[in-house]
Amino acid sequence: MGSTSLDDRGRLTLPKELRERYGDRYYAIDIDDGVKLVPVAEDPLAALRDEFADVDKSADELRDGARTAMLDEAGE
């Protein structure tokens, strides 16, 4: 993609191709060996609904399944 640098006010300009592909808003996440930029959807709730549209269980059912799996893995 190329390199970029911070300006004198600490701003980073992303290449046009990235802005067009991922948008203009990002979360900056500090990881062990650098910084990761994660695009933020224009409507985060709609993005979550789309992501989990094929899940046919309720949150309670998912939570209970995770709890059971955790206990099984712990040998209880």
From TrEMBL:
Domain of life: Archaea
InterPro entries: SpoVT-AbrB_dom (IPR007159), SpoVT-AbrB_sf (IPR037914)
Domain SpoVT-AbrB: 4-45
Molecular function terms, GO-annotated: DNA binding
Protein name: SpoVT-AbrB domain-containing protein
Taxonomic source organism: Halococcoides cellulosivorans
Phylogenetic classification of the source organism: Archaea, Methanobacteriati, Methanobacteriota, Stenosarchaea group, Halobacteria
